[in-house]
Task: inverse folding
């Protein structure tokens, strides 16, 4: 997990980077783990596919138990209970001079605030009163091929596709003309966003010697976004569409990185990251550098700098807005990357 001045291999991010990796399953014996807690029930299965080849599988699943506990009459003292479930899997297959693995992560969650089922004195949204529905879902599936070119170098190819979705539905409980008359819940706000990404990543890594390691890589992403948004118009007493977008674009990234351990106490990691966003035609080059000094096994000091850019969410580019002339339209398509300079100083004690 990186919170700033990320190494050159990470791009199109400003606030932080999670680099999550699924471990391989146990290739010697089958194991099962089950767990029940206040927030949910979990299960994990792992084991060998072929002991001779060292192939294995790993699968996990988690389901929220809060809704079941609420149905049993347990009062949590809140106006809404989240519902969620998620799962992961990984299949690892050793092959000649490398390995092939397939992986997946998926999850969904929902939460409903329903003032229509509550007394007006306990409404969640004050005098207005609303039934509000929030939800989200995501999924990632892909394959990872690792090929050792020599004892000191390898090539990694990763292909994946991911999906993300979020929505919100707002139904009003009171007449919007004066917010005093309680009425049958009616639509007030609707929005939904869906995005599909297809990613292809190639990485080359070579350990030149005990002091020097070189890495280079490229990532290309095909982006498809679908976004809808509408709001209640008090004049016409009907829903007014604010935008309805179905658009595609592409993002390309590349980097080179060099790691230098000039002695047992000092380590320097430097690199260059570049990215190009097809929608706006903008290209940027970002320098990265980090130094770590470890006087002993317990303490380390670090300094780092990085220039970072990130594109906006797709709906920002295609949403209709007013420009300085008072004209209404999609004027955000030429927005430049958000830009940030990161300066980091750190101290770590084990």
Result:
């Amino acid at each position: 997990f990186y919170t700033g001045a990320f190494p050159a291999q990470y791009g199109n991010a400003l606030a932080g980077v999670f680099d999550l990796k699924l471990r391989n399953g146990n290739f010697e014996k089958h194991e099962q783990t089950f767990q029940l807690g206040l927030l949910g029930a979990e299960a994990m299965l792992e084991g060998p596919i072929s002991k001779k080849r060292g192939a294995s599988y790993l699968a996990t699943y988690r389901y929220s138990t809060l809704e079941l506990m609420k149905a049993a009459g347990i009062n949590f003292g809140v106006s809404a209970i989240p519902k969620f479930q998620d799962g992961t899997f990984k299949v690892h297959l050793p092959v000649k001079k490398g390995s092939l693995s397939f992986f997946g992560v998926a999850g969904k969650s929902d939460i409903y605030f329903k003032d229509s089922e509550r007394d007006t004195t306990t409404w969640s949204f004050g005098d207005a009163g609303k039934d509000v529905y929030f939800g989200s879902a995501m999924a990632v599936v892909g394959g990872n091929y690792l090929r050792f070119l020599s004892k000191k170098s390898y090539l990694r190819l990763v292909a994946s596709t991911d999906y993300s979705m979020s929505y919100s539905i707002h139904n009003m409980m009171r007449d919007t003309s004066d917010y005093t008359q309680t009425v049958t819940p009616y639509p007030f706000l609707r929005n939904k966003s869906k995005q599909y990404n297809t990613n292809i990543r190639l990485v080359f890594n070579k350990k030149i010697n005990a002091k020097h390691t070189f890495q280079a890589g490229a990532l290309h992403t095909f982006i498809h976004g679908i976004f809808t948004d509408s709001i209640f118009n008090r004049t016409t007493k009907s829903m007014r569409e604010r935008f309805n977008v179905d658009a595609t674009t592409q993002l390309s990234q590349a980097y080179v990185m060099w790691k230098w351990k000039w002695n047992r106490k000092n380590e320097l990691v430097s690199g260059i990251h570049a990215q190009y966003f097809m929608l706006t035609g903008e290209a940027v080059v970002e320098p990265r550098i980090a130094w770590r000094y470890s006087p002993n096994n317990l303490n380390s000091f670090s300094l780092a700098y990085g220039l970072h850019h990130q594109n906006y969410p797709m709906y920002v580019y295609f949403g209709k807005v007013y420009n300085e002339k008072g004209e209404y339209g999609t004027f955000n398509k030429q927005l430049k990357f958000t830009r940030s300079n990161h300066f980091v100083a750190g101290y770590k004690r084990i």
User: Anything to note?
Assistant: Helices lie at 66-71, 314-318.
